[in-house]
Amino acid sequence: MFGRICEMWKEMRSITAMVVVQIATAVLNILFKLAMEDGMNPSVLVAYRLLFATLFMLPLSFIFQRKRKPEFTWSLMLLALLSGLLGVVIPSILTIAGLALTSATFTSAAAVLTPLITFIFAALLRMESVRLGSSVGLAKVFGTLFGVGGALVFIFYRGKEIHLWSTHINLVSQPRDASTTTHHISVFGALLVFGGNISISLWFLLQVKISKKFGGPYWNATLMNMMGGIVAMIVALCWKRDLYEWRLGWNIRLLTIAYAAIVISGMVVAVNAWCVESRGPLFVSVFSPIGLVIVALVGSFLLDETLHIGSIIGTVIIVGGLYLVLWGKNKEMKSILTINSSDHIETNKTSKDITLNTLPPRLSINVP
Q1: pLDDT of 367
Q2: Among residues 77, 131, 332, 357, which is most buried (max CB within 10 A)?
Q3: What is the separation of C-alpha 12 from the centre of its chain, rounded to a whole number of angstroms?
Q4: Angle at CA of residue 147, ends 301 and 228, nearest 5°
């Protein structure tokens, strides 16, 4: 009975942690939208975020993973630079710039496509098997197609407006123009967001190959933020040389930077790493639609973002495609574990038979 209670507690702890992560990520999208509406340049925002994240993560790396500190070689720094570009700099700049041209709800819906995009690249690079003749392979393929189709529906089909509640709250200071209301979202902005998702997917595949070389998740995040921050700072200085753009005050810009650095790059990274290690990557991916729902509700309430029938239909198709791919991947992992377990049992049985057959005749008589 006590063991069952412990298992239930571990389950609830993991679920609660992932729900909190999704809420924190949803809040980040809202803050990014507000910072962009306030006129902050995307490259300056990313540069400040990575600088703050490095200063926050470096002490944590020495405190929690001091014994796992990697050897700082040129090859490791180059890998950290590549990881920073694909995992932070490129997706952050593209996503924040696309967020200004679309909506927080669309950006969150597009983020749900990241596991599907990762599967496509993994299949093209032969890191993932497809097997179209099996139910697992068909689930992966059709789930990916559903995800892409849902994104297209979200972009190009508007439908009737849905008013969840009547409110005059609007934190966006700039008035909306007629083009934004008519076209709902910008196609160019959507392409920028998808470009950020593609970069994140490539970063996931890169992490499969190089993550162990960094010593641990804290050092991985620290070096990635540090090298990415150097590149982001150079890009931002070349893009915006006016020092007025770099000035921070007690406003939404400073709040966004501090929140992104401390909460997302610090706490969320650690919680995600813990959940992936204890429950697996599939468990983490299953909770991504929760953040989408939160952003849709908060965006409608605080940012004056209008929901449409097309948005809801596209979101449902995207989430359905995600769960179809996750179902296929989960079934594939279970079959692999079953095969490995049976092979292990067969190996032990064969080893026991060989041991018995090699015993001297006088000893083997008493062996049952």
Answers
A1: 34
A2: 332
A3: 21
A4: 75
End-to-end CA distance of the chain: 38
Q: Which two tokens stand for residue 205?
A: 């595949």
Q: How far apart are CA 221 and CA 49, in angstroms?
A: 13
Neighbouring CB atoms inside 10 A of 350's CB total: 10
Q: Where are the beta strands (DSSP E) in 145-258?
A: 161-162
Q: What amino acid occupies position 251?
A: N
How does DSSP classify residue 267?
I
Looking at residue 179, its amino acid is S
Query: What is the chain's Cα-based Rg?
Result: 24
The strand ranges marked E within the chain are 161-162, 307-308
DSSP bridge partners of 161? 308
**pLDDT at residue number 215:** 81
Indicate left, alpha or beta for 57 from its phi (over 0: left) and psi (-120 to 50: alpha).
Answer: alpha
Q: What is the mean pLDDT of each run of 10 residues along the chain (368 residues)?
A: 65 80 85 84 88 90 86 90 90 87 80 79 78 79 82 78 59 49 68 90 83 82 90 86 79 90 79 70 68 74 72 83 79 71 56 51 38
Parallel, antiparallel or unpaired: strands 307-308 and 161-162: antiparallel
Helix or strand (DSSP H, E) at 59: helix 42-64
CB contact at 8 A, 109 and 299:
no
Of 256, 237, 234, 258, the closest CA to residue 246 belongs to: 237
Tokens found for residue 106: 């669309």
